[in-house]
Amino acid sequence: MASVKELQTSQEFQDLLSQSGNKLVVVDFFATWCGPCHMIAPFFAQISAKYPHVQFAKVDVDRLRDVASSCKVTAMPTFQFFKSGQKVAELKGASAGQIEQLVKQHQGETASGSDGVSSNSGSKNNYGINGHSDLTDYITPNQMDALNQNEENNVKNVFKSNDAFLESDVDEQLIITVPFSQPVKIHSIKLKAKNIAQAPKTIKIYTNRQTLGFDDADSVKETQTIELEPKDFEEDAVINLRFVKFQNINSLVLFVQDNQEDEETTQIQQLIFIGSPIEATNMGNLKKGDEEN
């Protein structure tokens, strides 16, 4: 599950506020053309892992104009803080320090101490892998693609935390291209499937390739092949990669060769990459950007 959820509809926004109870909800109103929005995004993803008891979400102001208008958003990025459905704070601009200060101020009591850092090293944000977390927020959605995908059940579904899924079309094979917004290290993969019979069995992974065709899959050497069993799709299962080969990754291509029970089509409900952004720990650029804004 992604640490930061990008809201797709105004109803999702309303549901988030109405169903959050007394939890703090932090919403990042951003635009794809906004430079400071891209600059602060890695920090926003980091802080969501640091404060797992706080709900973090993003709203594309061009996609959800009605939400941005009702919230009186006039500059990007704008961060709004809600509790019990009511706005308790607002911050305009890409200030990492002020975002965290407001989270600390409004988070309320936590079981993990005043800084809000959970003591549970096996939280859903890092899947029990210390030093790494969900990389979904570093994926570039508009550049994702999948060959032989069903148009209705397409690749964008695998990065959502709902019942949607990706399904192949004319046979069981899929080629999934996943671009990242900045270089990352990838430690492991987590896969979810609704129907184990149609879940992937053999996946070949190619690093730093922008494209790959089915004809190329046999002639191009993969970085790693993983063979999956039904137990690999259990709730607490993760598939470790050869970490040394996934140290500076800008994009991945996954060739799903077959599925568990030779079904006609393959389905993937969720695909999660666990790792860390290479530049995310360098906050100097963020601070410099704060001074320039």
Low-confidence stretches: 110-124, 280-293
- Main sheet properties: 8 strands, antiparallel
CATH class of the largest domain: Mainly Beta
Q: Averaged pLDDT, please?
A: 85
Structural class based on helices, strands and sheet pairing: alpha+beta
What name does CATH use for the topology of the largest domain? Jelly Rolls
State the order of secondary-structure elements, H for helix, E for strand.
Answer: EHEHEHEEHEEEEEEEEEEH
Overall form: elongated
Q: What do we call the CATH homologous superfamily of the largest domain?
A: PITH domain
Pfam family, one: PITH
Biased composition (Low complexity): 112-126
Region (Disordered): 104-126
Domain PITH: 124-293
For this entry, give a set of tags:
293 residues; Jelly Rolls; 2 domains; 8-stranded antiparallel sheet; 5-stranded mixed sheet; 5 helices; 15 strands; disordered C terminus; Thioredoxin_domain
Quick overview:
The chain is of the alpha+beta class.
Describe the structure.
There is one protein chain. With 293 residues, this protein is α+β, with helices and mostly antiparallel strands. The chain has two domains: 4-125, 3-Layer(aba) Sandwich (Glutaredoxin), CATH 3.40.30.10; 134-277, PITH domain (Jelly Rolls, Sandwich), CATH 2.60.120. The chain has helices at residues 10-19, 35-50, 65-70, 96-106, 284-292; strands spanning 4-6, 24-30, 55-60, 78-83, 86-92, 133-134, 145-147, 166-167, 174-192, 200-207, 224-227, 239-240, 249-259, 267-268, 270-277. It is elongated.
